Amino acid sequence: MKWITREKPKIDRLACPWLIRKFVDANAEFIYAPASEVLQKAIELNATPFDIPGVEFTHYNDQCTFDYIIKKYQIKDAAVAIMADIVRGADTDRYDMAGESAGLMAISAGLSYNIPNDYQLLAQGFIIYDALYSWATHLYKQKHLQNSPFEHLLHEVYQKFLKEAGKKKIPVWVKELKHMIQDQIDMQFTFDLKKISDELALNPSYLSREFPKYFDDLNFGEYIRKKRIEKAINLMQESDYSLTEIAYLTGFSDQSHFTRTFKLITGKNPLSFKNSFQKSKADTKSK
């Protein structure tokens, strides 16, 4: 089956051929032509036009041609559903739809700029979408640093620290100083406020005042602590680390400071939270 669309593809006109080859017709042939010639050539070549106005395979409301093909051929693949949000966001400049949309747009625009031949570009596009499909199938929930050598190195350093710390009694003032230092670390973003303001060409006072409006009604330090606790929750759910290890891996000087911050942000004790999650997970597996 032949398919034809406009020349100089970027998003939809690369994603759709991949989707068609993968789920509709493995032997599909794709043709690119000047926009003004697509419909006439479609008749001459007995090809199905797509991603142009006024044809069946095109945009509808807020959805793109990729979405229509999924609906038309009832493609139920979960990874494709994840990809659809990314493709739609990239193709319609709505990068809030998926965190990966802006990246896909940047990569696609770069490829289009570097490769003037549409058919060579399509071949590279297949590689990009094969990779995106593998990510959506197998790696969708995996974070970049999860199980990374860096995280393992931190864990090894932490274990060594525990052994060394256990050899002698730590004075009370050291623990208090740790709390003070940790509080300063938590607020480290405020120390860079001038630099950040300069880079954004904004007044520091204005940036400090406006920041909470767009970051969960939190100031710099509060937002950083919130992100650390979110990382801690992720580690509780996806690793076997102890709470002390998790506290270290998320930037807290000790478990007591981690516990206080966790309760402040979530209203729950981290041990109770972890036990509750593990029990829920076990109950789910037993059903």
TrEMBL record:
Residues 175-276 form the HTH araC/xylS-type domain. One of its GO terms (molecular function) is sequence-specific DNA binding. InterPro entries: ChrB_C (IPR018634), Homeodomain-like_sf (IPR009057), HTH_AraC (IPR018060), HTH_AraC-typ_CS (IPR018062). The keyword Phosphoprotein does not apply. Pfam families: ChrB_C, HTH_18. Keywords: DNA-binding, Transcription, Transcription regulation. This is Helix-turn-helix domain-containing protein. It comes from Emticicia agri. The lineage of its organism: Bacteria, Pseudomonadati, Bacteroidota, Cytophagia, Cytophagales.
